[in-house]
Write a structure and sequence with these properties.
Strand 16 and strand 17 form a beta hairpin. The protein is built from six helices and 18 strands.
């Protein structure tokens, strides 16, 4: 019998929007090389691999080129698949053992809320190639910071964020997972916007990046003095993330929709 695979669009309620992730339901652990080969075959920004454990599910995430330590949209997709397939009751939390510790997802109507670790940034000097790689004029840059995964660059407005045309070959030289770009929103109903570029991890631009909001939540809380946000990632596909910073944790919520079901032969 084949291995069930489901493709889910995360952080959206519409198919062919948000961020697609493949979710593989394993009956036993598999080695990293095999999972990396499957992720390369899926060729999506993330492929998630789940295996049942006594106290939840083991969860690992792979881009087409590397395993990553934290991924929001593929965690959201994994919880969605467990509930939709009946492997978990709708009222039961989805508990995942990951490289970033225990992550818990709960259903709230059509939304899925994820309890993630906060990844606060610190002010940093822009390294050579960062602003040139983004194609951002120095005058438009309000702030540069860095966390353990990424650089964060605050720009002067959403039009500047949307207009970026990065040089991904230049960004690939940076010794980080990716670059978060953000600004305050000018659109009603949204507090801030962002984009995320990770060519070094095999993803030139990620459509919607849950883990980036583990940094963006605390960042904008300190500037907008709010405890809850509605964030818009302004990639070509786009997606919406609800963000609630809670000290050393961040609660992220999004919607998800199944696009494809199949199996690995």
């Amino acid at each position: 019998m084949g291995i069930p695979v489901t493709v889910v669009d995360a952080f959206t309620q519409e198919r062919f929007a948000g961020n697609p992730a493949a979710v593989c339901l394993l009956d036993a652990p598999r080695d990293a090389a095999w999972m990396q080969a499957v992720a390369r075959e899926m060729n999506l920004s993330e492929t998630a691999f789940l295996v049942r454990q006594d106290d939840g599910f083991g969860l690992r995430w792979f881009t087409p080129t590397v395993e990553v330590d934290l991924c929001g949209h593929a965690t959201l997709a994994s919880a969605h698949v467990l509930w939709e397939s009946g492997r978990l009751a709708a009222a039961a939390p989805a508990r995942f053992h990951t490289r970033s510790g225990w992550l818990v997802c709960t259903k709230a109507g059509d939304w899925i809320e994820m309890d993630f670790p906060a990844t606060a940034e610190q002010r940093a000097e822009a390294p050579p190639g960062l602003l040139q790689g983004l194609g951002a004029a120095p005058a438009a840059v309000l702030y540069v910071g860095r966390n353990q995964f990424d650089y964060l660059v605050q720009l002067d407005g959403p039009a500047t964020v949307r207009a970026l045309k990065p040089n991904h070959a230049e960004l690939r030289k940076l010794a980080v997972r990716g670059v978060i770009v953000t600004s305050e929103s000018d659109a009603p109903g949204y507090d801030f916007v962002s984009r995320f570029f990770a060519p070094g991890a095999g993803i030139d631009e990620d459509p919607v990046t849950g883990s980036a909001h583990c940094t963006l939540g605390p960042f904008w809380r300190a500037r907008l003095h709010k405890d809850e946000f509605v964030a818009l990632q302004v990639s070509a596909r786009g997606g919406v993330v609800r963000v609630r910073p809670r000290g050393e944790r961040v609660l992220l919520a999004g919607q998800a929709v199944t696009v494809l079901r199949g199996e690995l032969a």
